[in-house]
Amino acid sequence: MGIIEKMRLDGKKGFVTGGARGIGKSTATAFAEAGADVAIVDVDYEEAKKTAAKLAEETGRKVIAVRTDCTDKEQVDTMVALVVKELGGLDFCHNNAGICINAPAEEMTYEQWNKVININLNGIFLTDVAAGKYMLEHGGGSIINTASMSAHIVNVPQPQCAYNASKAGVIQLTKSLAIEWAARGVRVNSISPGYIGTELTLNSPTLIPLIEKWNAMAPLGRMGRPEELQSICVYLAGDTSSFTTGADFVIDGAFTCF
Length: 258
Hints:
By secondary structure, this protein is of the alpha/beta class. The protein has 9 helices and 7 strands, in the order H-E-H-E-H-E-H-E-H-E-H-E-H-H-H-E. It has a 7-stranded parallel beta sheet, sandwiched between helices. Helix 5 links the parallel strand 4 and strand 5 (141-146).
């Protein structure tokens, strides 16, 4: 069997949080194209249903939509139980839901700070643990967390201290869980994307004025594309990455190299 066949995910089951659009939609597409059955988990249930229906039609895989607020432990636990029931198991997950609020620290409200930390860090913890508990009891699995290049640098010119802090926390949480669970077959890794040109980013009135500045600073002179994150996530979800845990993969076009 060649390496391409070995990297397929035939028979595997997984979920993607924040999977209705953007990066999550792109990785969910890659998982399904590689042969996995996938749950699209998102707080926007209507969009999640559209994404799931499209993927199921295009790939022939079982793709379901599950409405979940990842900051609510009960909802997260219920989601994992439903994914296991509907798909027949859980082999991997991509915990990707997140938000960013651009505000100077001295003007940021405590409510804004808590909202970012709650979704980006607490939500990752809740989904990691809920998925991890199942995997620990059923022979192992792979967890992928979305961190950010913002865990490694301080972005300019936009102020985003809560986002930067939350993503740095995701990397350290990833390493901590990887160590705790390594001997029991559950691998935990993270990806740190650079600026990615999702549909929302490219059409955001707040971000459009910044894109030209970001591109001018970027060694490759452009933003990344969502599909440029697919291969690393398929690798991490599958068995060819069996010796890979506790790692953070920076996919940023060398943005953080200087």
